[in-house]
Amino acid sequence: MLTVQDLTVRFPSRFGDFTAIKGVSLSVAPGEIHGLVGESGAGKSTIGAAVIGLLQSPGYVAEGSMTLQDTDLRTLSTDQAHKMRGKRISMIFQDPQTSLNPLMTVQDQLVETIQAHEDISKTQARKRAIDLLEEIGIKNAETRIRAYPHQFSGGMRQRVVIALALCTDPDLIIADEPTTALDVAVQSQVLGLIRRLADTRQIGFLLITHDIGVIAQIADRVTVLRHGIVMETGKTAQVLGKPKNPYTVDLMKAVPPLDRRLDRFLVPGEDRKSDTDRDQAKGDKAEKWLLAGQKDPATGLAINDLSVRFVGERTSLWRKPKPFIALNNVSLDVRPGTIMGLVGESGSGKSTLAKAITGLVKPALGTIRLQDLDLPHGRDRGRHHPSRRLIQMVFQDPFSSLNARHRIGYILGEPLLHYGFEPDAKLRRNLVADMLELVGLTPDAIDKYPHQFSGGQRQRIAVARTLLARPKFLICDEPTSALDVSIQAQILNLLKDLQATFGLTILFISHNLAVVRQMADDVTVLRYGKVVETGKVEDVFERPRAEYTKELLALTPVTPSDW
Amino acid sequence: MAYFILKRLVQSVFVMIAVAFLAFSLFRFVGDPVSQMTGVETTVEDQDRLREGLGLNDPFVVQFIRFSSDLLRGDFGFSYRTRQPVAEMITNRIPATLELGVVALLISLIVGIPAGVYTALRPRGIATQLILMTTLVGVSIPTFVIGIMLIFLFGVQLGLLPTFGRGGTVHIGSWESSLFTFDGWKSLILPAVTLGVYQLTLTMRLVRAQMMDVMRSDYIRFAMARGVPLHSLYFRHALANTMVPVITIIGLQFGGVIAFSIVTESVFQWPGMGLLFLESIRFVDIPVMGVYLVVIAFFFVLVNLIVDLLYFAIDPRLRVKEDV
């Protein structure tokens, strides 16, 4: 149905044309889900945009052909192309929070789209819209259609988005990371819906994602992209199960498995020998300096009956607002020198717990103890409380967690100066340079600014910064969820190495169960601010006791083990 | 929502108390009221009697409370200069200033919003560059120069429009309006344009910046991807989302237009509050200045309240809370 032949897309720039897509060919049959995988910058979304004719300016299709049945998509006029959008090709975007117009009711948006492509009355259009919403699993569509987007939950909103893409009965839907912003339970529902629509309505899907588990679960065929070039294409089971291309082989190895634990990831392109050599030669001084600070035995963290409440929304003038309970009697014991994984869906209270430990929110009840040290809550913990140094944090977004206006040398030197470890500027600089080597960067990074580094490199810098405070306890809040799988593998390897060398205690927060399985010794499952289950990683993953844990494990998309 | 409005009203009351306090300080501490009211012939005993009679020897708090309650009852006192009640002087002048301000605002919106949308949708077009350049010149020149240039061109050289005053006015109750006669409009147009030019540029640039942001958003790209007709895409989807932040600035600016129409009113000898204020400064007519301060502050508070209510009208996320 859709045939793309030798597609080349270029983006002109001051330094000559940048070729984003080079000679890509692929096809999608009716009722087929065609997966498009690759890491960021591989050109996945660019292919989707080119097919639907919405390439970001100044990008343009330089060569190749794109045909939908017998329509040549490249020869359409602007006007024809706009009429074809929605009618024959539609699109689903990543984030349901932002892809609906917040000021219009769902009904207005649906009716408008239907009427744009068909000459039918408003009543008829509305009727069709309601039927469609019912079909994709929104109950009481008759009344709920009059609601605004913000009144729906995330998963329901993504259903509305799908309804909007579907309401004109298109032949092809381009789904650009349709489930990336969703929790696993909702993700599996949405993926099930996409599969069903492909089967019953014979709609072709071009499913763009970086999540190989998602592809493995529902795609019929898959195309692997790298730097705008097709690496491998074919049936999903064959490409992901028995990959021929070395890149696909490496990519599959970097995907953390859910059902077993690897000691180390094999990283695409990483020279395995030199990596182990590096630890001995480089970063030696920094390592010694850190070890000197680790004379005391490892430190554990004990949380007892911790409750955090936030002021809720005021519903009436006279009544007191109901508090929102973010954490409800949470008890947690992180054993010294181990990694505790903390998993849960969005809104389960994972990040609130991290904030309570670091003293950024004030719990209403409960105690937090760092080994023998009682940690006062919130603001009662002074600026110079020893735990401010002993507990350090690695944040999720490496782009906003480093000050863009400071050089790396200053960013890393700050903890040394602030905690009074190294007053001498020259020695400080040497130590920082050595630390950069320890986390796998070159020492010349010291005079650069954060924007000169990639996401993975920045996360290494963030790790180096925490280490320079000589911490005993590290909180990693989704440290790899903004990164590609191969980069994720590198960062996880780095964290594992550092933890083993320096005997750190780590609280590792993630929504990704497979990653937690690789990293953690113990694991705690949170839901609605309550602990659902806690125990050794092997026990929880192999023999989950709580229903909720079983559900989470079952719904996480994985590559089947028999491939 | 009721809670929100109530909160805003309480805040407004505090703002007004603060302003009343400033106005009162002006009264009480800028010069000695008694020596300004009396001539050189008045004896010291008479002055003291007057001071006692006016309650100027009472404690500060008592005087302030008396001043505030007078204001609340609409008793604004008497002008030093004309011996008229200040309330009467102000109400006579308000229509002129309000009409000028509203027409200036309308001009800036009617021209500014479409121009902003156009320049946002065709960011590289020649017309866009031309519009951006001319409006830049427009804001760079001070208001009074624009006014004088307009007078010179349309009043003196072409002789098309009058250069001062309000022209023919009609009384509707106590409201003296120049909106119902051709002559009145002829007089209004030059000062309104002069006053509106700055607003216009600001509105246009703000709409343009917001609109360009909105056009890059996911929901516009999604609307584009499902073939929503372009006119609806631009004006129904994009413009509505653009207006939320734009309204705040327009509201604040409108308060400013009312308050600072002084320059324009003096260039065109427009008999509004600005001109009255200017005359009052010249004759150190402190009661009028004080009341002017209070009235302008009241306008600001009112406009801000209206802006807050408009948010509720535009944005359902504030209006409709419950989940479905």
In spatial order, strands of the major sheet of chain A run 6-7-8-3-9-10
* CATH fold-type name of the largest domain in chain B: MetI-like fold
**Reading side by side through the largest sheet of chain B, how are the strands ordered?**
1-2
Major β-sheet of chain B, in short?
2 strands, antiparallel
Distance between the termini of chain A: 29 Å
- What sequence of helices (H) and strands (E) makes up the elements of chain B? HHHHHHHEEHHHHHHH
CATH architecture label of the largest domain in chain B: Orthogonal Bundle
DSSP strand (E) fraction of chain A?
15-25%
Low-confidence stretches of chain B: none
Strand content of chain B: under 5%
Q: What is the number of E strands of chain A? A: 20
Overall geometric form of chain B: globular
CATH C-level category of the largest domain in chain A: Alpha Beta
Q: How much helix is in the residues of chain B?
A: over 70%
How many structural units, i.e. domains of chain B? 2
Protein described:
- The complex is a heterodimer of chains A (563) and B (324).
- Chain A has 563 residues and is an alpha/beta fold.
- Chain A folds into three domains: 172 residues, P-loop containing nucleotide triphosphate hydrolases (Rossmann fold), CATH 3.40.50; 66 residues, no CATH class; 260 residues, Rossmann fold.
- Chain A contains 21 helices and 20 strands.
- Chain A has a six-stranded mixed beta sheet with strand order 6-7-8-3-9-10, with helices on both faces. In chain A, strands 16-17-18-13-19-20 form a six-stranded mixed beta sheet, with helices on both faces. In chain A, strands 2-1-4-5 form a four-stranded antiparallel beta sheet, covered by helices on one side.
- In chain A, strand 14 and strand 15 form a beta hairpin.
- In chain A, helix 3 crosses helix 4, helix 6 packs parallel to helix 7 and helix 17 runs parallel beside helix 18.
- Chain A is globular and about 75 Å long.
- In chain B, a hairpin with a 2-residue loop joins strand 1 and strand 2.
- Chain B has a two-stranded antiparallel sheet with strand order 1-2.
- In chain B, helix 5 packs antiparallel against helix 6.
- Chain B is built from 14 helices and two strands.
- By secondary structure, chain B is an all-alpha fold.
- Chain B folds into two domains: 71 residues, no CATH class; 233 residues, MetI-like (MetI-like fold), CATH 1.10.3720.10.
- Chain B is globular, with a radius of gyration of 24 Å.
- The interface between A and B is large, with 43 and 30 residues.
